[in-house]
Automatic annotation (TrEMBL):
<protein>
    <submittedName>
        <fullName>Type I phosphodiesterase/nucleotide pyrophosphatase</fullName>
    </submittedName>
</protein>
<feature type="region of interest" description="Disordered">
    <location>
        <begin position="93"/>
        <end position="116"/>
    </location>
</feature>
<dbReference type="InterPro" id="IPR027417">
    <property type="entry name" value="P-loop_NTPase"/>
</dbReference>
Length: 192
């Protein structure tokens, strides 16, 4: 969603279209396959100035210190981790890589899955703490933290914050128009 917002707002996106739109992401992925090799081959960064590039949080740690006084501006999208886990699980099920919840062979499988989710969430929390510490430690990094949930519920406010962070050059109305609440499909169930 963030990449679509930035692109619609007027920024060029550095992508390769290797991964096309699908049921999990009907508007496409806006990804660049080469970012996965950043640690060993950061050459793609030469084409990045002035463009937006999508990196998962783990890959941020592989970014080299920029040369010639360049700085990284990072928009870090935060999302409820239970929703992230739910989304990832659904994607794996659709790809046939993991059994769906109602298909376990025995009654202990549900307990094992709950434990697995709890373990995975704990790993995510630890990882995010590491990444946020890394972001704070780098003098060449300017970061803006944006809530996925708040962006969907208050798109104009989020778009204005992002626009301010990037120097006020974006079309905020176009960014807001890119947000489709119907694509927020892995919402955490209401409690109570």
């Amino acid at each position: 969603m963030m990449m679509q917002m930035l692109h619609r707002g007027g920024l060029a996106a550095l992508t390769d279209a290797v991964r096309s739109a699908d049921e999990d992401n009907p508007r496409g992925y806006f990804e660049l396959e080469r970012v996965k090799q950043t640690k060993d081959d950061p050459g793609w960064l030469e084409a990045a100035p002035g463009k937006v590039v999508k990196l998962i949080s783990r890959l941020l740690l592989d970014l080299p210190e920029p040369s010639e006084g360049r700085r990284y501006q990072i928009i870090f999208m935060r999302r409820d981790l239970d929703e992230v886990l739910r989304s990832q699980k659904k994607m794996l099920v659709r790809r046939g890589e993991e059994p769906a919840d109602g298909e376990e062979a025995d009654t202990n499988a549900g307990e094992a899955q709950a434990q697995s989710d709890a373990d995975m969430k704990e790993l995510f929390v630890s990882h995010l703490e590491e990444v946020e510490s890394w972001l704070r430690s780098r003098s060449d990094v300017e970061a803006l933290f944006v809530s996925y949930n708040r962006t969907v519920s208050a798109p104009r406010k989020s778009a204005e914050r992002i626009n301010g962070f990037l120097g006020g050059v974006l079309d905020v109305d176009a960014m807001v128009g890119e947000i489709d609440p119907d694509l927020y499909r892995n919402r955490k169930p209401a409690e109570g």
